[in-house]
């Protein structure tokens, strides 16, 4: 996977910026935070609509736009993490106490969390397709 | 209708319970398959030489078989079961039934469009093939309405009405039960469920709407009145108009007395009349230890004739 080279100057610039950017705990929690915000947004919207309006929330465009935005953020985070976890250098295992290995570890964790968050957002959104009332 | 009533989610007769049963079969088969595959993988892994897979290949196997595949399977299951959670469509002029859970019996009320309201007890009749909304409520404590063969259980909560939408698909005799501890008599709070063809159902509704049959044996009716039974129980078109206990207008048309507890016999009625609390703990009906057994038998004969 590490052999993939982005084409074009702009992409190349982006790629080198990503490689040099530091992975931190803040970037690590981006995917689960997006998932949490989407989850709260979806559930609170449904709950408030059922309680105050007495019927199931019906703003499909806004809901699907929000879901698409959440998924896009998670995918972007995953792409960045994917580039960063493939930092070239020494062979695995990458478990030394160095900055490079720390970056690889955090990036891999971010990448896995992004996968989990993607599934989480999809699983949160799917019921809206099928459930049509407040019961 | 001579076999004992079935109370099992594995003998479904309602649309929702049938869908749940099908899901259970699919899940069980799927779980067995996955268990078999995992066991096989385990066997292969233990028997294989240590260098069969490289580190990268091993990690990839864990990622694909351990994370990606389960996620896809769960997503497929979600798409498969979510449509089952949609409530059945209810036609605008559908039959409405109310079931009220009381300590420790069931008040059932039938509302057909253009007809007077009909109240009975401890029995639920449903027309096969028709969607019915059952409004669940309770005046005292939380009960739970559960007919395993019909649909999932739903709580009956004081101060609110929960709506259970059901459709019986197979005729027959079934049983339901309170599924939320509601007091000392909780374990003996059951009811018969009878799913019948729409024609039979209409006949039954018409029969139930008729006034009670006049007592062939006036002594029994007099004894019933003398002990003040009518203060709590109603027998339509007689002086008995109580609303505290179950309606007894067509008691003998039911299969059981005392909420699915005792058979519909003169002796059982007499026994329950004299000493309800010893048979059903916590029941609100008092014991009548001073009542001569002959009087209890007279009341039993009177009630057992109310077809």
Tell me about this structure.
The complex is a heterodimer of chains A (135) and B (307). Chain A is an all-alpha fold and 135 residues long. Chain A has one domain. Chain A is 73% helix and 0% strand. In chain A, helix 3 runs antiparallel to helix 4, helix 3 runs parallel beside helix 5 and helix 4 packs antiparallel against helix 5. The longest helix of chain A has 32 residues, at 99-130. The model of chain A has no long low-confidence stretch (mean pLDDT 82). Chain B has 307 residues and is α+β, with helices and mostly antiparallel strands. Chain B folds into three domains: 15-85; 96-197, Cupredoxins -  blue copper proteins (Immunoglobulin-like, Sandwich), CATH 2.60.40; 218-304, Sandwich (Immunoglobulin-like). Chain B has helices at residues 15-47, 55-81, 198-209, 218-226, 266-274, 276-279, 293-304; strands spanning 96-102, 105-111, 118-121, 123-127, 131-137, 143-146, 154-156, 162-167, 172-178, 190-196, 256-257, 262-263. In chain B, the strands form three sheets. In chain B, strands 3-2-1-5-8 form a five-stranded mixed beta sheet, with helices on one face. A five-stranded mixed beta sheet of chain B has the order 4-10-9-6-7, covered by helices on one side. Chain B has a two-stranded antiparallel ribbon with strand order 11-12.
**Tally of helical runs of chain B:** 7
CATH domain class name of the largest domain in chain B: Mainly Beta
Series of secondary-structure elements of chain B, N-terminal to C-terminal: HHEEEEEEEEEEHHEEHHH
The chain-level structural class of chain B is alpha+beta
The number of domains of chain B is: 3
Fraction of residues in helix of chain B = 25-40%
């Amino acid at each position: 996977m590490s052999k993939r080279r982005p084409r074009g100057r702009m992409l190349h610039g982006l790629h080198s910026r990503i490689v040099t950017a530091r992975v931190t705990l803040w970037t690590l929690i981006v995917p689960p935070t997006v998932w949490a915000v989407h989850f709260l947004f979806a559930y609170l919207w449904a709950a408030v609509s059922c309680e105050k309006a007495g019927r199931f929330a019906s703003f499909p465009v806004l809901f699907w736009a929000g879901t698409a935005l959440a998924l896009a953020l998670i995918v972007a985070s995953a792409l960045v993490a994917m580039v960063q976890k493939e930092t070239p250098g020494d062979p695995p295992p990458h478990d030394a106490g160095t900055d490079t290995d720390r970056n690889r570890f955090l990036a891999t964790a971010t990448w896995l969390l992004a996968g989990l968050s993607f599934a989480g957002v999809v699983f949160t959104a799917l019921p809206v397709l099928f459930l049509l009332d407040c019961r | 209708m001579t076999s004992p009533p079935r109370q099992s989610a594995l003998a479904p007769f309602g649309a929702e319970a049938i869908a749940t049963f099908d899901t259970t079969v699919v899940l069980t088969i799927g779980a067995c398959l996955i268990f078999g595959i995992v066991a096989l993988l385990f066997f292969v892994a233990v028997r294989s030489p240590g260098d069969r897979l490289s580190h990268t290949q091993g990690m990839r196997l864990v990622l694909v078989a351990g994370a990606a595949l389960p996620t896809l399977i769960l997503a497929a299951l979600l798409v498969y079961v979510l449509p089952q959670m949609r409530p059945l469509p209810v036609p605008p002029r559908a039959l409405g039934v109310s079931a009220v859970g009381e300590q420790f019996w069931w008040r059932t009320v039938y509302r057909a469009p253009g007809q007077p309201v009909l109240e009975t007890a401890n029995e639920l009749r449903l027309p096969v093939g028709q969607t019915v909304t059952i409004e669940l409520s309770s005046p005292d404590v939380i009960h739970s309405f559960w007919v395993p063969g019909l649909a999932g259980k739903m709580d009956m909560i004081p101060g609110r009405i929960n709506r259970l939408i059901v459709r019986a698909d197979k005729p027959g005799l079934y049983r339901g039960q309170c599924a939320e501890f509601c007091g000392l008599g909780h374990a003996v709070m059951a009811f018969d469920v009878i799913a019948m063809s729409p024609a039979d159902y209409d006949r039954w509704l018409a029969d139930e709407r008729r006034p009670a049959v006049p007592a062939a044996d006036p002594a029994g009716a007099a004894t019933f009145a003398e002990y003040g039974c009518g203060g709590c129980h109603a027998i339509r078109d007689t002086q008995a108009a109580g609303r505290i206990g179950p309606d007894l207008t067509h008691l003998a048309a039911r299969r059981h007395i005392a909420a699915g507890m005792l058979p519909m016999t003169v002796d059982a009625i007499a026994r329950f009349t004299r000493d309800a609390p010893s048979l059903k703990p916590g029941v609100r009906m008092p014991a009548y230890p001073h009542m001569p057994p002959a009087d209890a038998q007279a009341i039993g004969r009177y009630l057992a004739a109310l077809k």
